[in-house]
Specification:
The protein is built from 7 helices and 10 strands. By secondary structure, the chain is α/β, with parallel strands linked by helices. The chain has one domain: 3-Layer(aba) Sandwich (Rossmann fold), CATH 3.40.50.300. It has a 6-stranded mixed β-sheet, with helices on both faces. Strands 2-1-4-5 form a 4-stranded antiparallel β-sheet, covered by helices on one side. A hairpin with a 2-residue loop joins strand 1 and strand 2. The protein is globular. Bound molecules: adenosine-5'-diphosphate and magnesium ion. The site of adenosine-5'-diphosphate has 12 residues, from strand 1, strand 2 and helix 1. The site of adenosine-5'-diphosphate (ADP) has 12 residues, from strand 1, strand 2 and helix 1.
Length: 230
């Protein structure tokens, strides 16, 4: 479970101070899929960076399964980021001239897994994200956008993270491909019991997640839903 407590991140911009994250609190249960919507510049990426320990808050805390990030030294924060977080970005951030399977194996190599085990797990993950087996060995710059995002999601899953942070993962995809990616994230949160937080400015995609938050003027509010969704 992720508990976010009164998180604040301020930036100096000239002689002004801006607070894109200004007192954000929420909790996410293990295995839930939630979305954050908000205008461009509203602080969505800033908030994800704080949750993934890519950045440090001005004040407040993120508590992951009882461990407070504010209390961790830098070395432990790096460990948290590598071991417990999977990132998925709009630009996919794959290594273009490596194959799909090699891209997925990379984080496992950093984690010290043996080559044969890495290869086997990478192939299983690519199957789970439904990448056509004949494309597993293809260089990722020769895959379509939707296929590249599937590879990026498989890579994010490689070390069995507690939390997947996806920053506009459908931003570079057409509508239908974007829907497939959200459905994939939804089934992964269910099957792996992985907590997934997706930033999107596509409201129809946000409707497909179990919970939906809006970030506005530094504050997060939850949209009330009716009906049964995860
Ligand atoms: N490292 C930084 N230094 C200064 N200002 C920043 C920094 N990162 C983000 N900002 C500012 O914080 C605000 C929120 O940015 P961001 O989190 O990227 O918004 P979003 O992802 O919702 O589009 C913007 O005004 C942006 O310019
Ligand atoms: Mg952003």
């Amino acid at each position: 479970m992720i508990v976010v407590k009164d998180l604040v991140r301020q930036f100096k911009s000239g002689d002004r101070t801006i607070k894109p994250v200004n007192g954000v609190s929420f909790e996410l249960d293990k295995g839930s899929l939630a979305s954050i919507v908000g205008k461009s510049g509203s602080g969505k990426s800033t908030l994800l960076s704080l949750l993934g320990a890519l950045d440090k808050p001005t004040s407040g805390d993120v508590v992951v399964d009882g461990v407070s990030l504010a209390g961790l030294p830098d070395g432990k924060l790096t460990e948290y980021r590598r071991r417990d977080i999977g990132f998925v970005f709009q630009q996919f951030n794959l290594i273009p001239n490596l194959s799909a399977v090699d891209n997925v194996m990379l984080p496992m190599e950093f984690a010290g897994m043996r080559k044969a085990a890495r290869l086997q797990r990478a192939r299983e993950l690519l199957e789970q994200v439904q990448l056509d087996p004949e494309k597993h060995s293809r260089r990722t710059n020769r895959l379509s956008g939707g296929e590249q995002q599937r590879v990026a999601i498989a890579r994010a899953l490689a070390n069995e993270p507690k939390l997947i942070l996806a920053d506009e993962p459908t931003g570079n995809l057409d509508e239908q491909t974007g829907e497939h990616i959200i459905e994939l994230l939804s089934s992964l949160s269910r099957d792996h019991d992985t907590t997934i937080l997706v930033v999107t400015h596509d409201r129809s995609l946000a409707q497909k997640t179990g919970r939906c938050f809006r970030l506005q003027q530094g504050r997060l509010t939850e949209e009330v839903r009716t009906g049964l969704r995860r």
